[in-house]
Design a protein that fits this description.
Elements: E1 4-12, H1 19-35, E2 40-42, H2 60-75, E3 83-92, E4 95-104, E5 107-113, H3 125-128, E6 138-142, H4 145-151, E7 155-159, E8 162-164, E9 169-174, H5 176-179, H6 184-190, E10 195-200, H7 209-221, E11 226-234, E12 242-243, E13 247-250, E14 253-257, E15 266-274, H8 275-283, H9 286-292, E16 300-302, H10 328-347, E17 352-355, H11 360-381, H12 385-395, H13 405-412, E18 413-419, H14 425-438, E19 441-446, H15 448-462, H16 475-503, E20 511-512, H17 518-523, H18 544-557, H19 563-568, H20 587-591, H21 595-607, H22 612-622, H23 629-646, H24 681-691
Parallel strand pairs: 1-2, 1-11, 2-3, 8-16, 9-10, 10-11, 17-18, 17-20, 18-19
Antiparallel strand pairs: 1-15, 3-4, 4-5, 6-7, 8-9, 11-12, 11-13, 13-14
Helix pairs in contact: 1-2, 2-4, 10-11, 10-18, 11-13, 11-14, 11-18, 15-16, 22-23, 22-24, 23-24
Length: about 700
């Protein structure tokens, strides 16, 4: 009868402007899809050029090279006898669109432009593209000559249409359209479309994966149908990690699930499904059928090709599965680790250098590198030749086989404890023990000579010698002396990153890792240009609360017992003098707020869109059992003063893995001024009025 259709989707680790590598990965995905019997292959959004091209989308070169890659795909025997759906930018009548190009046997069937553009948070698609606003309208697109020579076509359909094959009907959505309140799949389904496709460029955020899965399953729960989703994966050149999760759903249930985090550059999902299951599911939904009888039809592009075979009664079909979600601790362990691996191999560096203080943040960063080493060893064990080749190049050994995470960590991670006269023996011991347990190459050094030299220059020039407040100095003096220590650590970190391998007789340089968490950045509790200033920061989008949970996860899953004492110690910068050999300075006392409070402020400020007055109004209810309105007012005012005084630090913040929706990242996610009137006089007066 021709009932069973075999469909393929994928998660590809594409890289912005890496046309050669992107083409190779697309070819590989199509080849695997065909080898598994698929007759339709879906790829991620803008997979030909890479999703993260940003302002390179303005360049005619990006359009030209995308069409050159498309030409290679069209003329290749690999793409024969399978419908291929690829993503690229297309200029139509001098307007740039984010498009799907669907082709079969050297003929382009349809170019489908994106209708709803993502333009919130990290997304800026309206900056580069225009949404297609002509619903159910198709125009002629004149192909460039390099494509005409391959296809023999002068024009092809361009617009909002669906494909009608011999046995079914397919309709495309692109990423954001699934999230829109008026998703195209609703009316397409009413018009008889049985297979919906979605090519995504969706990045990882902690605790977000379930939302995407729920949307895909709900898309076909009310209306029936098959929904297949492809997604980008990996770091394609910036702060985001695209987290795969390719999936196939039918009639509201998941039938195939891809991994959220892996080091595989190409991951394919193939499923065989019975079209009659869709038709029978729809048959008894009378409300759907009544709505379908009145729907405005879509233009149909007829395709002389079937996704099923005539004699398919014996073909087994896929059954529903239960989706497995990672815990937040697993997400922290895997997502930033995969992002670090992509950054390391694509930057062609020889490893990382991490200033390891013996505190929770730098220890969490060390654990993420250790988790990366676990993932590399596991991928090599599972036969991933790409990962093996990358690992050999990074460690400069063509015969190397990474089998032990500790041994690999010794080769790719250098940790450095930078002691001063204000450092305690406890933190030194904690850093050393953790380095031993993860296997990193560990350095102990003392910065006192450098600090004295820098302060000495100031004293010679001014005739004044600043003192810490415990020795009678002012708060200005004390803060300046703390900042000198912090900034010298940054200078030394970069010196050792450039020359440590040289001193050891090895080639290459190291990437410096930062370890300021999202809450400290929000509050501005860091020295500008200190050792939070690094090349990249894997924990910069993660809260202190989540990092503590992640540390506990590492104790249990990696048996890193050194982390127990790190967990139990109060967080401290160790920049002020010790008292009786013990640390007297703590982070929360310095900040005037707890990390738990900071997370709440951050979520209300960014996610809740709350200014000082709105935040006060919300918190007097949230905290009504623990604080009076006057205490809440005092806390809110203190937060906004500190946030606004320190906002300038966000303009130089180290590029961080984006993991949290209240991140203060100034690059493109959290756009704010950095010169505030820090008195907030009008806003605070409104709060005082309510308090009184």
């Amino acid at each position: 009868m021709g009932r069973a259709v075999t469909l393929a989707t994928c998660a590809l680790n594409q890289w912005a402007l890496d046309f050669e590598g992107n083409l190779e990965r697309i070819f590989r995905s199509i080849d695997i899809a065909k080898s598994k019997g698929a007759r339709y292959r879906l790829g991620p959004e803008l997979e030909i050029c890479g999703y993260g091209c940003s302002d390179h989308f303005y360049e005619s070169d990006t359009l030209l090279h995308s069409f050159e890659v498309l030409g290679k795909l069209l003329e290749s025997p690999v793409t024969q006898d399978i419908i291929c759906d690829v993503g690229m930018p297309v200029l139509h009548r001098n307007v740039r669109y984010n498009c799907r190009v669907i082709f079969l046997n050297k003929k382009i069937l349809l170019i489908r432009p994106k209708i709803s553009l993502a333009n919130a948070g990290n997304y800026r698609e309206l900056r580069w593209f225009t949404p297609w606003s002509k619903a159910r309208h198709v125009e002629e697109y004149f192909l460039p000559r390099i494509i005409q020579e391959v296809t023999g076509q002068e024009t092809v359909p361009f617009g909002d249409a669906v494909l009608a094959t011999k046995d079914t009907c397919l309709g495309a959505e692109i990423c954001e359209e699934l999230w829109a309140p008026n998703s195209p799949h609703i009316e397409m389904g009413l018009d008889g479309v049985e297979i919906f496709t979605n090519s995504s460029g969706s990045h990882h955020v902690l605790r977000k994966a379930h939302a995407r899965v729920d949307l895909v399953n709900s898309a076909t729960a009310k209306n029936g149908g098959i929904y297949i989703l492809a997604n980008q994966k990996g770091c394609d050149g910036d702060r985001l990690y695209y987290d795969g999760c390719a999936m196939i759903s039918m009639n509201g249930e998941t039938v195939a699930q891809g991994s959220q985090f892996s080091l595989d550059d190409v991951e394919m999902l193939v499923a065989t499904l019975d079209l009659e299951d869709v038709r029978s599911y729809r048959a008894e939904i009378s409300s759907r059928n009544l709505a379908a009888s009145k729907v405005n039809p879509y233009p149909r592009v007829k395709v002389n090709f079937a996704l099923s075979c005539p004699d398919d009664l014996a073909v087994p079909t896929c059954m529903p599965i239960q989706w497995r979600h990672h815990s937040p601790e697993e997400e922290i362990s895997l997502g930033p680790a995969c992002w670090l691996w992509d950054y390391l191999r694509r930057s062609k560096q020889a490893g990382f250098l991490l200033p390891l203080s013996g505190g929770i943040d730098s220890s969490a960063t060390a654990c993420i590198v250790y988790s990366m080493c676990h993932q590399v060893c596991l991928a090599v064990k599972n036969g991933n030749a790409d990962v093996l080749a990358d690992a050999r190049r990074i460690v400069n050994d063509e015969t190397y086989i990474p089998e032990d995470p500790r041994e690999l960590c010794k080769r790719v991670l250098t940790t450095c404890y930078m002691a001063s006269e204000n450092s305690s023996q406890d933190t030194c011991n904690r850093a050393k023990l953790l380095a031993e347990q993860i296997g990193s190459y560990h350095i102990n050094l003392n910065i006192d000579a450098a600090v004295k030299a820098v302060v000495g220059i100031f004293s010679v020039v001014t005739g004044r010698t600043p003192q810490f407040s415990v020795y009678g100095g002012s708060s200005r003096e004390s803060l300046a002396l703390q900042n000198v220590q912090a900034r010298i650590r940054m200078v030394l970190a970069y010196l050792f990153a450039q020359l440590t391998l040289w001193a050891r007789g090895m080639p290459g340089g190291l990437l410096v890792l930062g370890s300021a968490n999202v809450d400290e950045s929000l509050r501005g509790y860091l020295t500008k240009y200190d050792c939070s200033s690094a090349d990249i920061n894997p924990i910069g989008g993660i809260s202190k609360t989540d990092l503590k949970s992640f540390i506990q996860y590492c104790i249990e899953n990696f048996q890193l017992t050194a982390l127990r004492s790190i967990m139990s110690a109060p967080p401290t910068a160790e920049l002020e003098p010790l008292v009786d050999g013990q640390v007297a300075q703590t982070d929360e006392a310095d900040m005037g707020m707890t990390y738990a409070e900071l997370s709440i402020y951050g979520k209300l400020r960014k996610i809740g869109k709350a200014g000082p007055y709105s935040m006060f109004c919300k918190l007097i209810n949230i905290w009504k059992e623990i604080f009076t309105p006057r205490e809440v007012a005092s806390k809110v005012k203190h937060f906004f003063r500190m946030y606004s005084v320190n906002r300038h630090k966000m303009t130089t913040l180290t590029p961080s893995y984006h993991a949290e929706n209240y991140s203060p990242d100034d690059n493109r996610f959290d756009l704010r001024p950095f010169l505030y009137n820090t008195s907030w006089s009008w806003q605070f007066r409104c709060i005082d009025k309510q308090v009184n």
